[in-house]
């Protein structure tokens, strides 16, 4: 992977990485430490950010018991990487990570440790947008027809699929915009952009097409899929 510097060379970006979940849908596995093709999922997820020269600090929020004695492959990874204790929800973990980032940042990215297939191209594109003053959300256009349903699963209507995208991470914002969204300690939700949208900051958020392969390792059946995609990239 090659380093890339776009935008003003003095741009300073911080990355908050929520990695403190308990992986209930994976059967109680700490997914950040789950090995994929011989490397922890968290390391795969951090790689493209560490390859970005604009990234000056990365804070990983681990479960408190792991944060007090992080694995050496994480401690020794890079001077730019810090570890903090996460919280009971993803939002609380993101909040702790943001609080430990340096003050003087132009943009902050949030990226789930459970997304090991993120690419340098998508990271760079999201950073470019945030440094221009926009929000940037990695995702991909919906491919299946969507149905709006009632609580019993009966179809209400069929919205126009062309205006729907799936939201993934990274989600990157001008630093002040993201800090304001997380300033209210009660702000909760699994989507960073949704918190920003609720603040009414007026910042425009643009989707960046990361394709369906930027999957979140969530259930056991995702593991062979993620490994097949990684293997395919290694062979290219
Ligand atoms: N996360 C976190 N702190 C929490 C909960 C989640 O930092 N209290 C992180 C996870 O580690 C993951 C990301 O948020 O990198 C996305 O969450 P998800 O895929 O839901 O992971 P888990 O919460 O661990 O899994 P599950 O919901 O199946 O328990
Ligand atoms: Mg979860």
Question: Can you give a write-up of this model?
Answer:
It is built from eight helices and eleven strands. It has 236 residues and is an alpha/beta fold. The protein has a single domain (13-234), classed as Spore Coat Polysaccharide Biosynthesis Protein SpsA, Chain A (Alpha-Beta Complex). It has a seven-stranded mixed sheet with strand order 5-4-1-6-10-7-11, with helices on both faces. The chain binds cytidine-5'-triphosphate (CTP) and magnesium ion (MG). Cytidine-5'-triphosphate is lined by residues 18-25, 31-32, 61, 86-90, 93, 112-114, 216, 218. Cytidine-5'-triphosphate binds next to β1 and α4.
Architecture blueprint of SSEs:
Elements: E1 13-19, E2 35-36, E3 39-40, H1 41-50, E4 55-62, H2 64-67, H3 72-75, E5 81-85, H4 90-99, E6 107-110, H5 120-131, E7 135-141, E8 148-149, E9 155-157, E10 165-174, H6 175-183, H7 192-199, E11 205-209, H8 222-235
Helix pairs in contact: 6-7
This protein binds cytidine-5'-triphosphate and magnesium ion.
């Amino acid at each position: 992977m090659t380093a890339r510097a776009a935008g003003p060379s003095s741009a300073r970006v911080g990355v908050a990485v929520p990695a403190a979940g308990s992986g209930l849908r994976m059967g109680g596995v700490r997914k950040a430490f789950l090995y994929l093709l011989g490397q922890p999922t968290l390391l795969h997820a951090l790689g493209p950010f560490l390859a970005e020269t604009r990234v000056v600090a990365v804070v990983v929020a681990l479960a408190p018991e792991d944060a007090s004695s992080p694995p050496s492959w994480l401690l020794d990874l890079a001077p730019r990487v810090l570890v903090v204790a996460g919280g009971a929800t993803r939002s609380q973990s993101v909040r702790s990570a943001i609080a430990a980032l340096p003050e003087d940042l132009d943009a902050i990215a949030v990226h789930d440790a459970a997304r090991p297939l993120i690419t340098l191209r998508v990271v760079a594109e999201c950073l470019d947008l945030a440094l221009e003053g926009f929000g940037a959300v990695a995702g991909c256009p919906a491919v299946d027809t969507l149905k709006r349903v009632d609580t019993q699963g009966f179809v209400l209507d069929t919205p126009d699929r062309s205006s729907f995208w799936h939201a993934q991470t990274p989600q990157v914002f001008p630093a002040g915009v993201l800090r304001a969204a997380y300033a209210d300690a009660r702000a909760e939700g699994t989507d960073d952009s949704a918190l920003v949208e609720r603040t009414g900051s007026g910042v425009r958020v643009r989707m960046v097409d990361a394709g369906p392969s930027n999957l979140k390792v969530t259930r056991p059946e995702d593991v062979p899929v993620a490994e097949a995609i990684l293997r395919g990239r290694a062979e290219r």
